[in-house]
Write a structure and sequence with these properties.
Layout: H1 11-20, E1 22-23, E2 26-27, E3 32-37, H2 44-58, E4 62-67, H3 70-74, H4 88-107, E5 111-113, H5 118-130, E6 144-146, H6 161-166, H7 178-191, H8 194-203, E7 239-241, H9 249-258, H10 276-286, H11 295-320, E8 324-329, E9 334-338, H12 353-379, H13 392-398, E10 416-418, E11 421-426, E12 437-442, E13 454-456, H14 461-464, E14 481-483, E15 487-493, E16 499-503, H15 509-515, H16 519-532, E17 542-547, H17 550-558, H18 561-565, H19 571-580, H20 583-604, E18 637-642, E19 647-648, E20 656-662, H21 667-672, H22 677-702, H23 761-764, E21 775-776, E22 790-791, E23 815-817, H24 907-928, E24 944-947, H25 952-966, E25 975-976, H26 992-1001, H27 1007-1015, H28 1017-1027, H29 1036-1039, H30 1042-1053, E26 1060-1068, E27 1074-1085, H31 1088-1108, H32 1111-1137, E28 1143-1145
Parallel strand pairs: 3-4, 5-7, 21-22, 23-28, 24-25, 24-28
Antiparallel strand pairs: 1-2, 6-7, 8-9, 9-12, 10-11, 11-12, 13-16, 14-15, 15-20, 16-17, 17-18, 18-19, 26-27
Helix pairs in contact: 5-10, 5-11, 11-12, 12-13, 22-32, 24-25, 26-32, 30-31, 31-32
GO biological process, one term: tRNA processing
Catalytic activity: cytidine(34) in tRNA(Ile2) + L-lysine + ATP = lysidine(34) in tRNA(Ile2) + AMP + diphosphate + H(+)
GO molecular function, one term: tRNA(Ile)-lysidine synthase activity
Length: about 1150
Amino acid sequence: MLCRRYVVHDFPALEAVRNAQSVADNPVACYQCVVVDHRMRDGSDEEATAVKKILTERLGLRTHQLAIAWSNVLEGTGYSHPKELPNFETVARRQRYRKIAAQLAHSKIASLFLAHHEDDQYETVLMRLISGHSAPGLLGMRAATDIPESNDIHGVYQSGMIDDQASKSPMINYRPTKYDLRSIKAQMMADLDPELIARELLQGTRASAYLEDELDQYVPRTKMMLPAAPPELEDGGCMVYRPLLEFSKDRLTATCEANGIPWFEDATNHDATLTVRNAVRHLSKNHVLPVALQKPAILGMSRRLRERAQLDEGEVVRLLSRTIVRDFESTSGTVVVRLPSFRIPRLRRGQNKNDRRAKRLGHYRYIAALLIKRLLAIVTPDMQSPPVANLQNQVIRLFPSLNDNPSTYPEHPKAFNVSNVHFHPVRTSSDPKAPVNWYLSREPYVSGRPVPVCEFARLPLRQRWRRRPELWRWPPSRPWQLWDGRFWVRVFNRTNVHVSVAPFDARYAKAFRESLPDGRARDTLMGLLRHHAPGKVRYTLPALYTLGDHETAIRDHERSSDVEKAQMLDEAEIKRQWEDMDMAAQREEFYKTRDWELEQVATRGVERAGGGGGKGGGAGGGDGEGAGGASKEEYNKVLVALPTLGIAKPGLMNWIRYDVRYRKVDRTTLSESAKDENDVAWYLYKRARAMATFFCGVLLALSIAQCRSSLPWDATPITPLFKVPTSAPKAESPVSADGMANSTTIDLGWYPPSQTVINNLTNVVSNDTTGVYGFIFNSSDTPDDEYGTYNWCNMPHVRPLEYVRPSEEYELAYVELIHRHHKRTPYAANSFPVESYTWDCNDEGLYYFARPFSEDPTSPDPDPSTTTSRSNSSALAYWEVLSGTTNPFEALAPGWKGTCQFPQITSQGLDDAWQHGADLYGVYHDLLGFLPDRDDDGNWGGKVKYRVTNNVITSEVAGMVINAMWNTTAAPVPLLVQPDGVDSLEPSYTCTAAEGQFDDIQSGSNPEWEAHLEAARGLYAVLDDISGVDTAADSGFHVSFDHYYDNLSARQCHGKPLPCKLVNVNVTGADGTTTAVLVNDTSECVTQAMADEVYRFGNWEYSQIYRDSGAGSLAASVGSFGVWIAELAAHIRGVVEGSGDDTSMD
């Protein structure tokens, strides 16, 4: 039963939870419950009523009690009871969800929470495993998904957002507030150019309505045609959430019992003969299954498959970024696609080479099939996409390089159909090697098979009876219907003929074209068809038909005797006369009217589409107006409109109105794909640039394995992209012993970076419109954008999808990763000379840890139940500043007031480090090949090296990364470290030439550096006054903005307030004495605007040092990181020569 859901025993507590929740910044209005009575056994209705009573009276929740009407389901099946159905569980599930969906649509609810728990997940996966499902079926129930079994219910399944936003009180309100509108207006007014406005007013507006008058000489204005306005794309719908999948049934029942909430269990769940699920549940509870089929193993397998599916989805996203998806037409449901090519890399010689190639081809085909499923979803009318296994032939057609023998594939691809989608190859070049575009459209309808039809009834007789046509009222709001699985259509019909939506039929095209008013309208029709639906695609468009000519039918009604009788009657009298008639009289009126209409048709000589029926169709008060009645076949179909093209017979909208929308399309597929060749080229350029930068850095490092005074910035590039001084001396050009060419064979020139808001001083100074250029604070989450957003506070968690993987042309052999430590508390050196408030760090979740060496490396922690321990263990500890002692120098100590002192890693930083380790293993263990399993007796651990700096917090981070990768803490792992004075990972070695280069950049000899200090003079004066920094005594704060940057960002990273000035205030005590105390002057504080300007100056300084100072920037970078790059090059060279390790991590 669906009454198992979130359990609360306190209604005010539920209200507090509701008030704290929001969707798109819109508060949750209320909770509503749904109880479904399946009516499978006696007493089920009483039980459902009891559940509703508890939810309503005890929890104060509005509850809807629904029941399944099995009589409608069993009609025509030959079965008398639902239990006799061979697919009872499937039918019950469909009926249950459709009942719920209808209620959700009526109540305008967008989120449905189901109480599926861990045991349900286990049963689902085990059932699918028994049934022979492949990996996608073993993923289990999703934690969030669209509501199932309700694809054709508008407002529930992937639809309803447009109507919601158009309503007076939308569920989710995206409209800007008055404050936002005023702010937008102020910004727009600030951007206006008064002189330009005045000049445009003097010139006046154009006399022509056309923007480009020069087009007139090429195209006559009478022939100009704009494309049809595309139908809107639906969005929204109800999402199903399963938040309890991580909790077992026993825990949920215990929670209910602890809170006094009765647990209701459907008795049919214990009938092992009723459904397969019941049988599986009975087996798992009453028998001991093999370990591989028990709950931990099954759920673990499902979890691993979900992780694998996430990685596969990441590969699809990268492949999609190289796929050109353009010209999507919601008018006809078509799209043009250019697929990327797969290049299979050469495999190293060795055993099982053919097997490895076959495995790689199989994986590529699987990824290609997932991409095809995404593209099919744009066009296909099918509700379910085909399984990957059924797309292998199509993968070979679309990606010939994935064939086992590509040479056997035909040179010219042919059109084909899959999932009711027609793939048509289109070549835009005569070159046979040019890439092929694929035009995807709905497959043409097969002759002799039923076509999709949506029917809409005519205006009921009781609303037409004895009324002139101009008095006929529009019917109330009509529900949307899904036509052909692609278009949502809705028709308002106030005529006396039935209306239907069916495919555009060529048999009615000529009459429709001739019904248009003039030649220009007919030319417009043909032009729109050629543009939006060429060839046979036009016959998949939705068309609006009337069953008989509506204009003629309306004129016939005006001549009827009923209308003549009612000439002098008002509306109220006509309505009263109809209601005074009994059912038989109303039915008689219906048949009389119908017979008269048939006579008029016969008189006009119109050929009937079908014979008349007997007197068995009238129902519902004598109306008999259902569109499914026999009378609809008594008229010929008349094509009156092509809704998606906006073409209709003149005057149709006075009697028949229609709306059409295209169903929801995955917008990420359209947005993440390339739009043209330039997007693909840009993607390939970025990848090539990253590889070129890496290899140039490696080659550069090889030339400076030792720090020398003649640094390579003196070299002149052989083929410069930009002009450089020709007088610069050239470096020697021998070839090294290992065959590697040195600096004269590669381009060592410096090229200026492009100008951005970062290195443009004009943008830096008081530019409050650009903020801090995308910085975020106090976050462990990776920003949504791939580039442009940085995190000064914490190394943001890199999503597994964004770890670098080799492209299809290469095989991964070696990985070296370097990353910074994670979130920590600030350095004492970052504090002001006099701090204005107390900062305690003992609430940051600090964590120092240690594990002493034991004779038994696998020895666990001490067992508290025994008196002896097998090994000693360290307590968890952290540093806290000792204060309040008699130490006379304490008042003079630098640092923060409070417990913060030396930087310590926080619990959030440790959690992020652990997640990095888990993701690294998940991404690379298959690609590298020697990380097959964490249970590999630790053999793979010997091939992975970890390196840290002398700072203890890097060791703490390494411990968490290793724990997540190995999934163990038993065996000690060495952390490689270099001596403090020569450490290349955190450069601390002495290099006189490099230090001199740094000093030159940050001195008066650099006019740009001097200019930025001059521009910052006013900001410095304000900050110095607030912070108490003495310019003469502490020049470190004024050489650059490094100290101020660290100080202010450290505060904001930890959610601390920006500082205010400390001033002396005389305070009079109770005894009358006056004492001077320091207090915050809240009128003089560092504002957020000041802090943002400090960040902008700091970014400018880093860019100036490492990018913008010509050859000096190149030299400074080499002096800082050259040794580490040389080490990296040696590692790569060792792997290439076969003497190195496979993985390293710094």
